[in-house]
Design the sequence.
């Protein structure tokens, strides 16, 4: 719509600038239909060029979109063949746009009367009707642009909030290695001993700061829950007694950078056969299930290992962190349990690097793990890439909204530049008179910007009202920002107003440099 308004404004300006020429051609016998047809042909040409450029841009953008949606663990496929359906739709849009928005200048050209134009002075050639129409188009451009810019600000702030959210652990220094040996016939004790040897081997790799093993990792997509004993929490429903669980080995909290507020970490003794069942809980667990009382030494009963209700002695209190890596939800109550031996090596080895990129240690970590068991199949991914994959949609929405917001700013700026440039040309003689009488260049700039400022202000008000109404439709897509956030609205309005006024200032500044003598000759 913004682009269509620009086309209409351009054609109106061209028709107004050629008003005298059109009058002469009408006086020489040119028909109104022929002149109107010429305006429509120009509109078709502009729309056609835009359609071809749009197809090329869409082709390139599709590749960028696929890249942004794909992640280290999954590849997104978006087939976009340039077939007859795409070309046909584009052609229809171009033709309909040309006809709809070329009608106004065509109609204006057909209504030019030779006697009125040939007897008019240079400053009245444009007519007042055209001014009212282009002012309406400018206001519409600014209003629509503000809607897009507000949306862009809200979605970009949502992505930034998710990408930088503190969820209780360090996301940038963790390398996750998944070891798999499905054909292993090792006994329970042998498997447990192998996992311990792998941890020791990886911990000895230069550049490794800490290492731990676990059944799952944050944002892996796999989740575990345990159910607390119903008799202990009679006031809670069965669903409310489900607690997010993480089965981990000693060193988890040091590896992930999650601070233990009190108590201790797990030890190898907690994994031994016959050891007292213990657990570590987070702050949210204490607030919800322990009533805020001291957690250390407390006992909770749960079916922690898929067995009967077992008493678990709490030995540690950890800072709140998201064990499932869900960035959009608040951090839930969580319980950490010592990882028992597993049936196969579907075990994640999380490595904290001392410095630099985690990926640089992948080869050394794999070598250390295969020294323990050459049959292991090892795959790697960084925790940051894993978490980024969970917000791929938000990233794409932010990129697209930012692109269209920037495009709206560009189109609005071009429209205001064209309107101001046309106004300067139409009032060139008047500007010459003012400057001949001693007007300062600054006063000429203010004169040309006065009407533009009113139009921009009116467009911002209308666009702000539309954005305020439409923002409620985006509520479920946002995070960390409200749909009608005043800061976002104010920032978008300021950016749009500044861009629009800058675009109008350029031709206004050029008007302040008009030579009075040259301008007066056009009278």
Sequence:
């Amino acid at each position: 719509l913004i682009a269509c308004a620009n086309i209409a404004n351009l054609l109106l300006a061209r028709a107004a600038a050629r008003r005298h020429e059109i009058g002469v051609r009408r006086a020489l016998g040119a028909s109104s239909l022929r002149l109107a047809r010429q305006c429509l042909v120009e509109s078709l040409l502009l729309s056609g060029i835009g359609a071809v450029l749009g197809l090329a841009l869409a082709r390139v953008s599709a590749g960028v979109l696929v890249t942004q949606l794909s992640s280290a663990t999954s590849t997104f496929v978006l087939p976009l063949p340039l077939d007859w359906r795409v070309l046909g739709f584009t052609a229809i849009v171009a033709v309909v746009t040309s006809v709809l928005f070329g009608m106004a200048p065509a109609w204006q050209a057909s209504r030019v009367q030779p006697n009125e134009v040939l007897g008019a002075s240079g400053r009245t050639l444009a007519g007042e009707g055209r001014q009212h129409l282009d002012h309406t188009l400018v206001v519409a451009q600014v209003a629509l642009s503000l809607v897009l810019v507000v949306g862009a600000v809200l979605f970009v702030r949502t992505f930034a909030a998710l990408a930088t959210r503190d969820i209780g652990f360090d996301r940038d220094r963790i390398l996750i290695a998944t070891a798999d040996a499905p054909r292993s016939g090792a006994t329970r004790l042998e498997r447990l001993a192998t996992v311990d040897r792998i941890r020791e081997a990886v911990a000895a790799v230069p550049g490794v700061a800490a290492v731990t093993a676990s059944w799952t990792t944050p944002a892996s997509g796999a989740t575990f829950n345990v159910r607390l004993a119903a008799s202990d929490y009679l006031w809670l429903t069965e669903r409310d007694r489900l607690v997010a669980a993480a089965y981990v080995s000693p060193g988890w909290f040091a590896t992930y950078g999650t601070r233990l507020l009190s108590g201790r970490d797990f030890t190898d003794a907690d994994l031994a056969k016959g050891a007292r069942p213990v657990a570590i809980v987070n702050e949210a667990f204490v607030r919800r299930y322990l009533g805020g009382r001291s957690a250390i030494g407390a006992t909770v009963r749960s079916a922690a290992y898929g067995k009967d209700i077992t008493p678990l002695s709490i030995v540690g209190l950890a800072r709140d962190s998201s064990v499932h890596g869900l960035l959009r939800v608040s951090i839930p109550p969580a319980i950490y349990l010592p990882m028992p031996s597993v049936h196969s090596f579907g075990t994640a080895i999380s490595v904290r690097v001392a410095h630099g990129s985690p990926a640089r240690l992948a080869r050394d970590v794999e070598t250390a793990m295969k020294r323990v068991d050459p049959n292991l199949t090892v795959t790697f991914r960084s925790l940051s890439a894993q978490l980024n994959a969970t917000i791929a949609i938000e990233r794409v929405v932010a990129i697209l909204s930012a692109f269209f917001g920037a495009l709206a700013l560009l189109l609005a700026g071009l429209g205001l530049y064209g309107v101001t440039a046309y106004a300067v040309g139409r009032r060139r003689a008047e500007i010459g008179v003012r400057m001949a009488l001693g007007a300062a260049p600054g006063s000429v700039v203010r004169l040309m910007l006065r009407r533009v400022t009113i139009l921009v202000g009116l467009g911002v008000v209308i666009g702000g009202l539309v954005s305020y109404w439409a923002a409620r439709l985006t509520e479920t897509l946002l995070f960390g920002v409200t749909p009608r956030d005043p800061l976002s609205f104010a920032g978008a309005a300021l950016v749009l107003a500044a861009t629009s006024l800058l675009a109008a200032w350029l031709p206004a500044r050029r008007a302040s440099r008009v030579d009075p003598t040259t301008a007066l000759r056009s009278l």
Notes: The longest strand covers residues 310-318. The chain has 16 helices and eleven strands. The first helix runs from residue 2 to 17.
